[in-house]
Amino acid sequence: MSVTNSLISSLRSSSLLGTKVVTPRSVVLSRRLLSTSYVPATKAALPSRANNVVPKTPAYEIVSSFYTAINSNDLSSARDLIAQDCVYEDLIFSSPFVGRTAILEFFGKFIDATSTDMQFVIDDISKEDSSAVGVSWHLEWKGKNFPFSKSCSFYRLEVIDGKKQIVYVRDCVEPAIKPGESVIAAVKGVAWLLRKFPQIADRF
Q1: How far apart are CA 63 and CA 133, in angstroms?
Q2: What total number of domains does the chain contain?
């Protein structure tokens, strides 16, 4: 009986085979310490937000810089502003220019054909949105308005690898031929055809 009491007393007071017996309060404290000790490791494992920081340069400034680069025949600067898979849709062409290389080749041909005497002049540009920009512009030849060059463009931008770049452009250029009210007659005729043959719409 005395041996049993001695064993119980020893378990309560200190240790058995070097293992300390803890009270419920000690267990709670140990769990808290264990939890706290893992906090630094958890924070260290989290991905850095530095790579996800949105660049502070406003979208409209990037678009303005693009026009400046083209006006200066500085295609290397324009390259940095265009995404690798950017789509440039000029509505006077039957299909868009897809990819940075194709877009720069197009502007290179434009510059070769006109020289820096031809300049893009921004009439108005939207500044409120951080990822979409609207621009109204025209062309000037040695400071004088170039005919049939009034245009509107839409730009979409995204942050790619920490840089805000142009990913989509649509240009709507003033037509050289102005059909006027005959357009209404043409639209009316097309609408009549669609009502009679709705399957035609699938070919558009």
Answers
A1: 8
A2: 1
In a domain, 6, yes or no: no
Whether 201 is covered by a domain: the verdict is no
147: which 2 tokens? 């005919």
Percent residues over pLDDT 70 in the chain? 74
- In this predicted model, which residue has the larger pLDDT, 171 or 176? 171
- Is pLDDT of 130 > 60? yes
pTM: 0.69
Alpha helices in 72-125 (DSSP H): 75-81, 100-114
- Determine the average pLDDT of the residues in 100-126: 95
Q: Does residue 45 fall inside a structural domain? A: no
The 3 state secondary structure assigned to 28-94 is HHHHHHHHHHCHHHHHHHCCCHHHHCCCCCCHHHHHHHHHHHHHCCCHHHHHHHEEEEEEEEECCCC
Is the pLDDT confidence value at 82 over 70? yes
State the pLDDT at residue 78: 97
Q: For residue 201, which amino acid is it?
A: A
Domain interval for residue 79: 59-173
- Write out the two tokens for 20: 């300390």
Structure-block tokens of residue 100: 């940075």
Dmax (CA) for the chain in angstroms is 116
The CATH number of the domain holding residue 76 is: 3.10.450.50
| H-assigned helices in 75-165 | 75-81, 100-114
